Amino acid sequence: MGDIGDFEKAAFALPEPDGEILRLMTDFTEYCDTLVTEEDNAANVYENWIARKSDTLSGLTPFEFIKNYACGGTSGAPVFEKYEKLVLCMLSRGVYSLPDEVLDDFFAACENPDDWREDITRKCLANLGGEDRDLAESCFMLLYKLSEIPGGFGDNLYDDFIDTANALMDKNEDYASDLLTTAVAFCGNGFEKTVETLAEKVAAKAGLGPVETKLLAVLCINGKRDERLYTMLRSLVKTTDMFDSELEFYFELVKDYGDPRAVTFLRTKVNQMREAYMTLNADDKAAKVLFENAYRGDSVIKYLGGAGLF
Asked: Quick one: pLDDT at residue 251?
């Protein structure tokens, strides 16, 4: 198992909201209570909220209130520490967030926005495996919100996400899975790095561990096409023993990837399995596994537009 890091050295306490931030949170909750119809909720809730005047905020719009808070009630430049506190409070707690307009204004107040995001990201990752579950949950929420900000994460953070996911796999599989998805989808060159790493492992027949298996699944549902990924799936289906329950999982990945060309190698595999099944006692445990695998493979063939064998 990997090493998440030294929690004592990486300790990172998210700020608690003060009275003014709580007013802002209350205002957002009150605004959400006014959203009655499906059309109301389908709109850009945060953009609409931030622009309307509020009695809770003394007649200011939430954006005006935020600007006043960040500037300490003056008309001067924002006090970065105050702005940062508000942003961290809003992004790390449940339903609260901020629209791009506010985040753009906040990052304009940063001396180096990329460095800030990298520093916060690493601190959050370091605390996901700590004993403080509330802090871990808040850090996880903050990472999720940061992934939604245009630009995602720098490619230099890819390994941090992978290493943390590997360390968390046995402790919190849900966190680990989401971190792997983030690495692929939101880190610079994440898709390319993942394809390259897994292609090398499959080609070398090195075997895929839990992290690699989940990364492969993330690639297959990503919606991107890559010939190396198709080759990996074909190799895994062809070389996996027909009695191995893992084969059913690989069939499912082929379905998720959705390339109709796969019908050819799927039909070859399923036909071999069908012929093998005919020689077995149907009541044998191995025969049941084989039938389930073959039946799943056949359903994927049909899903991809091919003629089934059953």
From this structure: 97
Distance CA(240)–CA(237), nearest Å, equals 6
Backbone angles phi, psi at 43, to 5 degrees: -75, 170
H, E, C per residue of the chain: CCCCCCHHHHCCCCCCCCHHHHHHHHHHHHHHHCCCCHHHHHCCHHHHHHHCCCCCCCCCCHHHHHHHHHCCCCCCCCCHHHHHHHHHHHHCCCCCCCCHHHHHHHHHHCCCHHHHHHHHHHHHHHHCCCCCHHHHHHHHHHHHHHHHCCCCECHHHHHHHHHHHHHHCCCCHHHHHHHHHHHHHHECCHHHHHHHHHHHHHHCCCCCCHHHHHHHHHHHHCCCCCHHHHHHHHHHHHHCCCCCCHHHHHHHHHHHHCCCCHHHHHHHHHHHHHHHHCCCCCCCHHHHHHHHHHHHHHHHHHHCCCCCCC
17-21, 70-74, 292-296: which range is least confident on average? 70-74
Positive or negative, the CA dihedral 65, 70, 72, 76 is negative
- Dihedral angle of Cα 155, 156, 158, 164, to the nearest 10 degrees: -160
Phi, psi of 132 (to 5 degrees): -80, 100
* CA atoms of 18 and 21, how far apart (whole Å): 5
pLDDT score at 1: 34
Question: Is the pTM higher than 0.85?
Answer: yes
What tens digit of pLDDT does each residue of 165-222 get? 999 999 999 999 999 999 999 999 999 999 999 999 999 988 899 999 999 999 999 8
User: pLDDT by residue (tens digit) across 120-151?
Assistant: 999 999 999 888 899 999 999 999 999 988 88
- What is the reported pLDDT for 75? 67
Contact (Cβ atoms closer than 8 angstroms) between residue 47 and residue 83: no
Helix (H, G, I), strand (E, B), or coil: what is residue 153?
strand
- Binning the chain into helix, strand and coil, the percentages to the nearest 5 are 65, 0, 35
